[in-house]
């Protein structure tokens, strides 16, 4: 059952931004339907198809999957996003899997960065070369 207006049309239902306030600590898995603003502490996992922002006072430790991650606080662990932005005061320690990594002046990154591959793509360049050679031989 959805919400309806007086004209009988359904109103759009979209998730808002989930805010974890400064002074709040969460241990566990979080799967927000909308965007996430983390100003507190989260230890565990975040999984969303939306954007995540870790504010100046925010801290994350665990596994994070999102569309885009902006960090001005601290993050540690495994991060998998299309785009990762480490802002001027941000610090990331761990592994980043992303197609786009931006580190602003003053931002810090300690760890490994890997290009995020699409599902089903080959992990070795020799396999990529073999597939290319087969395609042009046809």
Automatic annotation (TrEMBL):
InterPro entries: BacA/B (IPR007607)
Pfam family, one: Bactofilin
Domain of life per record: Bacteria
Amino acid composition bias (Basic and acidic residues), ranges on this chain: 110-119
Disordered: annotated segments: 110-138
Family: Belongs to the bactofilin family.
Protein name: Cell shape determination protein CcmA
Organism: Alkalilimnicola ehrlichii
């Amino acid at each position: 059952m959805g919400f309806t207006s007086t004209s009988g049309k359904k109103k759009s239902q979209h998730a808002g931004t989930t805010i974890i306030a400064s002074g709040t600590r969460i241990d566990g898995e979080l799967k927000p339907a909308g965007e996430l603003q983390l100003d507190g502490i989260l230890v565990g996992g975040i999984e969303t198809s939306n954007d995540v922002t870790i504010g100046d006072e925010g801290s994350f430790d665990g596994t994070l999957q999102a569309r885009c991650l902006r960090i001005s606080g601290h993050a540690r662990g495994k991060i998998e996003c299309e785009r990762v932005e480490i802002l001027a005061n941000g610090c990331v320690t761990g592994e980043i899997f992303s197609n786009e990594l931006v580190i602003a002046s003053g931002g810090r990154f300690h760890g490994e960065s890997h290009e995020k591959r699409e599902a089903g793509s080959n992990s070795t360049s020799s396999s990529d070369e073999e597939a290319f050679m087969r395609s042009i031989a046809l």
